[in-house]
């Protein structure tokens, strides 16, 4: 998959997770899941899902070591003029 396709997919997943963040359907649910309240179990799963999506964003959209715009910029940075060091 291309980088643009990954970006579209992951941004769509992030938007879906944003909409699913407020679990209005579990506010009055008093059942226990795995010994914990239903809302807490939902948010534990939600945090795992968000962590996975953001981790994929870092890996595929913003790869480490590549500054933003580096793929577009191909010119090298020119050295400073001779005789003008760091201390003037």
Descriptors for this entry?
elongated, two-stranded antiparallel sheet, single chain, 2 strands, mainly alpha, 2 helices, 88 residues
Compact summary:
The chain is mainly alpha-helical. The protein has helices at residues 3-20, 38-60, and strands at residues 32-33, 36-37.
Structure description:
This protein is 47% helix and 5% strand. The longest helix is centred in the middle third of the chain and has 23 residues, at 38-60. A two-stranded antiparallel sheet has the order 1-2. Helix 1 runs antiparallel to helix 2 (38-60). The protein is elongated and about 75 Å long. It has 88 residues and is mostly helical. The protein has a domain at 32-65. It is built from two helices and two strands; from the N terminus they run H-E-E-H.
- Spans of 5+ residues with little confidence (pLDDT < 50)? none
Proportion of beta-strand residues: under 5%
In total, the number of strands is: 2
Helix content: 40-55%
Q: Over all CA atoms, what is the radius of gyration? A: 23 Å
Discrete helix count = 2
Strand and helix layout:
Elements: H1 3-20, E1 32-33, E2 36-37, H2 38-60
Antiparallel strand pairs: 1-2
């Amino acid at each position: 998959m291309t980088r643009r396709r990954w970006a579209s997919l992951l941004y769509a997943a992030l938007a879906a997770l944003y909409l699913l963040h407020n679990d209005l359907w579990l506010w009055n649910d008093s059942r226990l899941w795995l010994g914990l309240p239903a809302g807490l179990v939902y948010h534990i799963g939600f945090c795992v899902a968000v962590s996975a999506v953001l981790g994929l964003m870092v890996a595929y959209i913003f790869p480490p070591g590549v500054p933003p715009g580096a793929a577009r910029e191909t010119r090298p940075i020119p050295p400073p003029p001779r005789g003008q060091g760091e201390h003037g």
